[in-house]
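Mods, move this if it's the wrong board.
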Amino acid sequence: MARIQKPSGSPAAVLTTLEGTGKKTSKARNTTITITMAVQQLLYFRIGGFLEEEEWNQDDFKEQSNDGGPRAHNRSKTTGQIRQDQFYCPEEILVRIGVLLLLAAVGSDGKVPRTWTDASVATMEVPLANAKYSPIHITEKTYYELPTRTVYQSYPVYHPNREPAGFMQWLERQEPRIAFDPEALKTRRDWIEAGSLVFNAPVSYSPVFFSAKDLRDPSFFERLGMPVAKDGTIPFARWVIRRKGQVELGSMGCNTCHTRVLPDGTVIPGAQGNNPGDRQGAAMLRQTASAGSSAQLLTRLLRFAKQFEVPWIENDPNRRAQTMSLEELLAAGDAIPPGVTARSHTSMLLPPQIPDLIGVKDRRFLDHTGLVLHRDIGDLMRYSALVQDAVGLARYREIQPEPSTRGSVRYTDEQLYALALYLYSLTPPKNPNQFSAEAAKGERIFEREGCAGCHTPPLYTNNKLIPVDGFKPPADHLERFDILLTPVGSDPRYALQTRKGTGYYKVPSLKGVWYRGPFGHHGSAATLEDWLDPARLSNSYRPTGYAGPDGRERAVKGHEFGLSLSSADRTALIAFLRTL
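Not the wrong board. Structure tokens:
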């Protein structure tokens, strides 16, 4: 048995040890010893939780689990959080783990996966509820014929009242510079930092939610509630120089939707975003209409809305957009709150909540409906390629001709690999909510009410799919996918009546709910208090988050767990959830 030793260096130093081990050419035994020692130290950081000042109690960690693996005793029965940690593990298991960690730790020494292969694309998705209309994606050959995206050096955008003097003039003097150079990436840390560049790199230089003029106008921020970071920057957009002397506003990179600014101005990359993008877009289009272009704008919007239609559904609710007036379409945009967005191939009338990407490395399904499997880093690379570039190139059986690839671009495999490593590296900010006596009471309620059956610690999700009302999983799905046959009663429309509709919703993680919101698949509840309010089941309820395109009163049905608790128990449960 191997005892995990308290490390002498930081996690980064331990990873450096592993990276160095990958480059050794010495005898296999020496490499094994080095890996084992490094893994022991990494497990200390992973399990011991940086208990630099704690005494390790040898008697707390002596028993093995039934499968011969390590068992941590000093653990909360409900949450699975290890308190303080000494740990024993068989040497051979450490070596096996070491090989896996070694492969994960090495940056450019490992081979960058090929993103789009015919074999991997054919198996990456859960079929749609009507399986014969599942998307047919472009071939490997067609994908790699697309021109690749250049990631230029970009610069922060400031609130106009917070911008350093002479900043724009300085930008105008800058030379164009390519920021992403895979040849310069030597370590895992290099790749992660390069992934941050990709995450923040704009993919559009035309106004989508806002224009450069908007972001130079202080009243724009007041009217539309655009969050501003504590340093005065706007983390949802970047200035880019692609030609000297021409400063362009770029947006619609990952950061535009997956960045959150807390009330104190703290920026959380990868979190459920809170820029009111759809409302900003509606405001921008109103300005266009007021300039006398109403008829052309309506034609353009109706063409845009076609992407949301699901032609194989007899009474497709998304076709309603074709009968709406210009003002009704703009009002539908106004109705979408921060944290929710009608992204490509979802729905204008049933827009989804923006997912939190922090912790994505532990998710086994991607998208609310679990459409994309997450088996390895290659799947996350493919998912990123789909979201930004390839989803619009899919066709749905014979109902649609093969789309033109004219004007399409793609990320390079190296860019997607760096982005995926960056997303895997994201961690939540320090939680200000202390584990109080009230939270401890809430933890007991969490256990008593059986919440852990779906929201299983320590990930607070069981990573399973739950069928919606009206969908019966085919027999082969029960063999191929991890499915929980427990009815929840959530609104099934997004899972059945959109191009993302698999017939399932995945079980979301509860980690980080203290900084997230709104809640529910469509963001119908602004806060945890609203989500656990039994009044939301009434047809006379007015949703506090997304209330639909018309904003009318309606019930927010489904997931009735916790709604029958007393007021005091609900308060305690919420106190516990906010500590996760």
